Every structure is written in C-alpha cells, then in structure tokens.
Amino acid sequence: MIVGNSFQIRELKRTIEKIRKSTGNVLITGESGTGKELVARELRGTLADGSPAPFVSVDSATIQSSMAESLLFGHEKGAFTGADRPKPGLFEEAHGGIIYFDEIENMPIEIQAKLLRVIQEKEVMRLGASKAIPLSFRVVSATNQPLDQWVTQGKFKADLFQRLNVLPISLPPLRDRSEDIPLLVEHFLKQSGRKLNFSIKTVETMKTYSWPGNVRELSNLVTYLTAMSDSDFILPTDLPAKIRGQDVQNDFKAFQQENRSFYDTIRTFEKELLTREFARHRGVISRMAASLGMDRSHLYQKLKEYQVHRPKVLSIAN
Q1: Which domains does the chain have, with CATH numbers?
Q2: pTM of the model
Q3: pLDDT in single tens digits along all 318 residues of the chain
Q4: At a CB cut-off of 8 Å and minimum separation 6, what does 56 contact?
C-alpha cells in the first residue's frame, strides 16, 4: 500500500495504474528506503483464475557468479556434482508474473549477458538441458545508483540497461514530500496497534529533518516510539537527537539572540519540563508530583504560573 497525498505520490499512483496495464519491463530508481519493492508489488497482476500472479524477488547483491545460472535458470539432474534432481530456476517460478531484481547494479557483469538473452528470447535453458523452456514474465528492476553512468563507465551492460529501462519509475525522497509524514505515521501506528498523539511542534520538527533513510527510517522511528514512549503524547523532546538536532540548535541561537538572563533561561526550561511531565502522566497531578519529587500544592502553583496544559496535537492515532 502506497501511503501519501502529495503531488509526487498522486503522480506515482497514476503512473503505476498505466504501467500495470502494459507488459514492458520496468526500472524503478530512488534512494534507499523510498519503497522500491513496494512499488514493484503494486505492478503485480492476476492470473486467469483471479489469483495473484507470481512475484519472485531476487536480491542481486547475493548472486554469486558460480551459482547464478543454476539459481536463475534452473538445472537438470546430473548437471553438476550434487544435482540429484531437476530444479526450476527463479525465472520459471516467475512464469506468468513478475521477477523483481533488487539492487540490479550488483548483478555480476559476467551474468548480465546471459540475463539479457533470457529477457530477449523469453525462454530459459536449464543447466544440463538440451531444450529451452518458453516463458512469460515481466522484469522489474530497482536501483539507487545512476545506471546510465555505470553504462558509460563500463560497469553495466548497455544492452541490458536498454532492455530494463523500458518503463522508468522514479521515486521521490521523503524530504521532498514531507506533507505525507502525518499520513505515514498514522499508517505505521495502525500496524503497531499503539495509540499515540504527536504535538504539532513534533510534526513540524519531523518535517524539517532530511530523512536520509526515507520512509524506512520513519517506520523505524514509529516502532521506536511505540516501544519506548511512556506517554500517549509525543513531544519534540521524545524524538532522537539527530531528528530534533536542528530544532535544538535554533532554540539555542534564539536564546543567544534574545540575550536572555539566567533566570529567564531557567524559567523556559522549567516550563518545558512541566509540559513534558504533564503529557507523560496524562495530567494526573499525583503521578507528576511523585515523579518530580514536588509537593502537590507547589506543583499546582507552577502549572498555573506557566499555564501548562495538554499540548496541541495532530490526531494521529490508530
């Protein structure tokens, strides 16, 4: 499921709908963590009986030249030592559906020519066989590298690149569609089963972060917060330092520019601490007082002085 309502995601969904109706090979490009396999699975069709078509995923980084032909194309009994029975390859398993090559740039160069022949001819020859097996499949490949430059450098076969890059799809990084962050957080929270509310300031802090790990990094953050948070309210201070780092720097600069006195600075952080504790204990004064080691009457006075109440939140919940 592709989550988001940004312009980039709406365009991506329209592109997927068009490509799903075709049979051309697809090359998906994008940074790590942008959801390339998710998009590949969205291209999956159905068989004549209405069941899902095959989807075979291949991690190109794990392909070893010595075993690549057997793995991809299959082998007959006796084709090599230890081949005690015939075995279909991954291309045969993908018959009628999609064979997906993740990190296609890592495919050994000596295997690329053989891969090209299978894609061109739409048939495979098992190791040790004398007859080719005709197949029907679509190749969907993914990379986070500029394959066109790899072709120029001689690290990737030009003919194979042309065969793979029939229908290109480019995925946007999360930093270019930060308006989708609340929807993505809601989606991940539903998967976790934990109900959380994020303050508006928290969401704004998350939007200013660059997200080098993209959607995968955001998913990991939600998993972390659902496991570690003691409160149903997530404040900026609950975020890892690297995410709120820029925000903290801006606050420090603001203190410097405003030339605040020592006592004004103490009051500012005192209010922040009370706000955090109020949210963490859901406004239960007795729990706050016990946690802070304060007398309840003194705590009431401080809360009134700083006008501490539940923070404004975006209703992100399962």
Answers
A1: 7-172 (3.40.50.300), 175-314 (1.10.8.60)
A2: 0.79
A3: 899 999 999 999 999 999 999 999 999 999 999 999 999 999 998 888 889 999 999 999 888 877 888 999 999 888 888 888 999 999 999 999 999 999 999 999 989 999 999 999 999 999 998 899 999 999 999 999 999 999 999 999 999 999 999 999 999 999 999 999 999 999 999 999 888 989 888 999 999 899 999 999 999 999 999 998 888 888 888 888 888 875 445 555 555 555 567 777 777 778 878 877 787 777 788 888 887 788 888 888 888 888 887 666 555 544
A4: 90, 93, 94, 97, 98, 99, 100
